[in-house]
Amino acid sequence: MASAVKRTALRLGMIPADGIGKEVLPAAQRVLEALGSAIPKTTFIPLKAGWEEFNKNGKALPDETVKILKEECDAAMFGSVSSPSHKVEGYSSPIVALRKHLDLYANVRPVSSVPIPGQYSPAQCDMVIVRENTECLYIKKEEIKTREDGSKIALATRQITSTASTRIGKMAFEIALRRGKEREQAKKDGKKVWWNDIPKVTIVHKSNVLSVTDGLFRESVRAVKDGNERYDGIKMEEQLVDSMVYRMFREPEIFDVAVAPNLYGDIISDGAAALVGSLGLVPSINAGDNFIMGEPVHGSAPDIEGQNIANPIASIRSAALLLSSLGYVEPASRINAAVDAVLAEGQYLTPDLGGKATTSDVTDAILKRL
């Protein structure tokens, strides 16, 4: 993950893209601005990408956006993207392309319980899903062939490499190591910590069927721990992806850090959002060794676009996660504490959580607690 560097200024690329991204990303920006001197002086640089941009100018990810991100930005925030469910000539997802251009090989998604009075009693859950971000089926090598009898066959190439699997495995073990230290410190400080187990990494795969591709992923991640004394205090387990889904919903409290190939990680992290009440609560970062981009887990939600009812919390928490990853842990903690307070109070909840509050209401309530 990009290392923490002391800065006198911070330049953030802001890519709202499509749908509710244009509503939740400004909410995250307002919260970051409210931190004042707690973070370096921050310049927000608006950038274009998305389905709407493709329809206007023929390119979902303009070259200028990539150039500015690489040459002028320290990090970035992404809103949400709409992608057609059918093939459109010349279109490909800009978020997938950005991950490749910036080598953002990990998608890190924390999923934590926050009780909401009178609305939702979440499962006891405090886990991080670490998703490999650059390969698997998402390399998008697909083709259709016509057989002699006229029937068609669709083929997709799935790519798993030892290089990508090893580095995502290392990130998962580093996150588990850090989380273990944070829990130990919390206990020393007298704080209530429900997680009593040692740090743990669960490798998610389906190598009983896909013995070559998933087999390589499994072996590569296991090799990160094997023989490395740094990770001696971390437990390592495995779950077949179907069993992972079942146990995640039945016993979410048993998981700490889960690491998975791209497709499995995408599915289980979206599913895990149901454990805490809504996709509108779950943040993520796309991380590499030299760049980080925050991204709420939810989609573009065109059915509620422009109605000021989208939940901004996933975007706001993504901004906090981005700050923490850049080394600004205290201001990130302040953001999360403010969000937790608003949720625990239960007065300002958007419709996805059973409430009637607007995007603006929730953002204002969080700002007051900062």
Query: Could you say how many structural domains there are in total?
Result: 2
**CATH class wording of the largest domain:** Alpha Beta
Structural class: alpha/beta
- From the alpha-carbon coordinates, what is the Rg to the nearest angstrom? 20 Å
Number of helices: 11
CATH superfamily of the largest domain: Isopropylmalate Dehydrogenase
Low-confidence regions: none
Oligomer: single chain
CATH architecture of the largest domain: 3-Layer(aba) Sandwich
> Termini distance?
28 Å
**Share in β-strands:** 15-25%
Mean pLDDT: 91
> In order across it, which strands form the biggest sheet?
2-1-3-12-11-4-5-10-8-9
The number of distinct β-strands equals 12
Characterize the biggest β-sheet. 10 strands, mixed
Describe the structure.
The chain is of the alpha/beta class and 370 residues long. The protein folds into two domains: 1-122 and 276-370, 3-Layer(aba) Sandwich (Isopropylmalate Dehydrogenase); 124-261, Isopropylmalate Dehydrogenase (3-Layer(aba) Sandwich). The protein is 38% helix and 18% strand. A ten-stranded mixed β-sheet has the order 2-1-3-12-11-4-5-10-8-9, with helices on both faces. Strands 6-7 form a two-stranded antiparallel ribbon. The longest helix is centred in the middle third of the chain and has 27 residues, at 162-188. It is globular, with a radius of gyration of 20 Å. The model has no long low-confidence stretch (mean pLDDT 91).
